[in-house]
């Protein structure tokens, strides 16, 4: 919508110019018939409505010019209260049209014979002149509107840019900064009175080379005015295939690491109180872990799948001096071998096909000043074991495809469910790395070796899943707890949690009873549970003693282990646990 009032001074200048050229009084009204400009006696009435502007109202309605040589007697003057007693001698009115919108009227009024003669003798040229004046006003009001819209758009753009958490730079084809937000000004120390060039703010060679090729760029770039690295994402601006500049998003790498820390630490903090278990073995494990947590020593956590190795690692990190920094966990067995190296160590731009422009930070770099947890390290390929050993020895990391050695301050916690001693013997795991990792070994016992912890674990998971699933569960029967406390739990604590979740989901209110247990639990234990004289430990002890008796003539424990389907080491451990060796002697 165009408004003459927006260019009030220009409209008045136009009215003065017309009056001076034609020596006649001029008034100009807007679409609401409010005087915007006037000469002579009309100048004192600016801003007032034309209540008697019947001719102008007709021009506005029809969009046609009008010439009246008999004011007060013309048909258009009928509604006027001054009809028949009008002081005007003649009147000319033409519409001011912008596109299909009439935005005002230019009126000429004569008050004597001489002025009237000038009007009537030059009607054609007069109307042509006024039309040109109207076009000038339209051009000015359109220009003013476009300027206003451009300024509004620019203001909106800057408001949006200043709402962003990243620094934003808009660069033209001459590499001059045309716009920037407050974050960019702070990150790169830009004075608001300056219009800097890109090269004054950033080491721009790699970045602008990508822009000239019409390609996006992402990667760390060194700042010129600040002694820090900035992470830049750059997108070229194209117009009809021509590069006319770029948009650059800038982040502080320190801020990125802070976000990583928040995502990996604050949301999932773990304390030793969250490691459930009051059995002697668990108390000893937690006491040992709590004792070594504040140190800088590398730890090797061993335990079967589902025992809670990562939970223990997080608790150790949270009890260390590094708790304010990132805890980065990576499963070495879950990531394809061809991707694991770049995930751990990062890579430089162009190091391989498909590599991101600008390269990528590795997990070790992201864990700087914090802790990295290498889960299932027993599954790590030999060639990567060499690089891990180098990190442990030199405390430096080198990206894939890079030549620069990056210093690191990171604590390494490793974990595995595999027997690393055996892997070293078979050549699947480097002996030097094993001894570097195994500075302080921590072994989490399987659940079957601490069945006395089952009741407290059951209650923990019962409360947890009742809340998570919003199920009403009043409790669990003692019979059901006894059955669960007799099950060998091959899947360890993870399997127990899944069983309790199943029971909470399936129970229709009230207590969880034995008949609700999963079929695999019932089929293994419920027939034995009916005979209270039978116990899993006593059955296992009796079975081991029978196996040892069968091979008693030769006295080889290897044969007994094969007969039982377990390893010789497991057999030795169980003989010790059940104190079988105190009553019998075997070789």
Task: Summarize the structure in words.
By secondary structure, the chain is of the alpha/beta class. Helices cover 42% and strands 18% of the residues. It has 22 helices and 19 strands. The chain has a 5-stranded antiparallel sheet with strand order 2-1-5-4-3, with helices on both faces. A 5-stranded antiparallel sheet has the order 7-6-10-9-8. It has a 5-stranded parallel sheet with strand order 12-13-16-11-17. β4 (90-98) and β5 form a beta hairpin. It starts with 7 loop residues before the first helix and ends in a 10-residue tail after the last helix.
Fraction of residues in helix: 40-55%
Read across the widest sheet, the strand sequence of neighbours is 2-1-5-4-3
- How widely separated are the two ends? 103 Å
Q: How does the helix and strand content classify structurally?
A: alpha/beta
Low-confidence stretches: 263-267, 527-533, 582-587
Count of β-strands: 19
Shape: elongated
List the defining traits of the structure above.
42% helix, 19 strands, alpha/beta, 587 residues, single chain, five-stranded antiparallel sheet
């Amino acid at each position: 919508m165009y408004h003459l009032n927006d260019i009030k001074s220009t409209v008045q200048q136009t009215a003065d110019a017309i009056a001076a050229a034609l020596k006649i009084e001029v008034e100009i009204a807007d679409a609401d018939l409010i005087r915007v400009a006037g000469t002579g006696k009309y100048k004192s009435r600016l801003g007032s409505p034309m209540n008697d502007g019947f001719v102008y109202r007709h021009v506005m309605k029809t969009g046609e010019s009008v010439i009246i040589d008999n004011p007060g007697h013309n048909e258009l003057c009928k509604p006027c209260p001054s009809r028949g007693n009008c002081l005007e001698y003649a009147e000319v009115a033409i519409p001011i049209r912008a596109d299909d919108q009439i935005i005002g009227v230019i009126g000429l009024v004569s008050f004597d014979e001489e002025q009237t003669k000038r009007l009537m003798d030059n009607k054609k040229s007069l109307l042509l002149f006024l039309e040109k004046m109207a076009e000038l006003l339209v051009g000015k009001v359109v220009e003013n509107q476009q300027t206003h819209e451009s300024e509004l758009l620019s203001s909106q753009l800057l408001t949006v840019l200043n709402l962003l958490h990243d620094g934003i730079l808009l660069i033209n084809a001459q590499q001059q900064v045309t716009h920037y937000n407050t974050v960019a000004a702070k990150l790169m120390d830009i004075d608001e009175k300056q219009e800097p060039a890109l090269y004054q703010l950033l080491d721009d060679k790699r970045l602008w080379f990508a822009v000239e090729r019409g390609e996006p760029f992402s990667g760390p770039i060194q700042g010129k005015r600040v002694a820090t690295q900035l992470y830049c994402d750059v997108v070229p601006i194209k117009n009809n295939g021509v590069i006319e500049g770029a948009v650059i998003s800038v982040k502080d790498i320190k801020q990125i690491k802070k976000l990583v820390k928040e995502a990996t630490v604050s949301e999932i903090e773990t304390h030793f109180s969250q490691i459930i278990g009051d059995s002697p073995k668990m108390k000893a494990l937690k006491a040992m872990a709590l004792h070594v947590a504040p140190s800088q020593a590398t730890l090797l956590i061993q335990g079967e799948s589902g025992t809670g190795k990562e939970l223990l690692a997080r608790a150790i990190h949270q009890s260390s001096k590094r708790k304010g920094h990132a805890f980065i966990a990576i499963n070495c067995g879950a990531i394809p071998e061809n991707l694991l190296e770049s995930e751990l160590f990062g890579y430089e731009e162009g190091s391989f096909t498909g590599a991101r422009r600008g390269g990528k930070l590795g997990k070790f770099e992201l864990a700087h000043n914090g802790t990295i947890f290498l889960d299932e390290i027993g599954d790590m390929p030999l060639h990567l074991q060499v690089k891990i050993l180098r990190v442990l020895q030199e405390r430096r990391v080198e990206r894939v495809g890079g030549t620069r050695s990056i210093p690191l301050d990171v604590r390494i916690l490793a974990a595995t469910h595999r027997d690393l001693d055996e892997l070293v013997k078979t050549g699947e795991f480097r002996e030097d790395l094993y001894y570097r990792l195994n500075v302080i070994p921590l072994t989490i016992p399987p659940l079957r070796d601490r069945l006395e912890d089952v009741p407290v674990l059951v209650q923990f998971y019962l409360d947890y899943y009742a809340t998570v699933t919003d199920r009403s569960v009043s409790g669990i029967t003692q019979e059901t707890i006894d059955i669960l406390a007799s099950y060998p739990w091959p899947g360890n604590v993870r399997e127990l949690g899944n069983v309790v979740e199943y029971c909470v989901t399936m129970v229709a209110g009230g207590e969880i009873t034995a008949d609700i247990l999963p079929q695999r639990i019932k089929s293994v234990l419920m027939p034995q549970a009916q005979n209270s004289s039978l116990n899993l430990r006593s059955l296992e002890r009796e079975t081991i003693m029978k196996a040892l008796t069968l091979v008693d003539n030769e006295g080889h424990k290897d044969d007994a282990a094969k007969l039982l389907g377990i390893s010789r080491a497991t057999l030795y451990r169980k003989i010790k646990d059940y104190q079988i060796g105190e009553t019998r002697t075997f070789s």
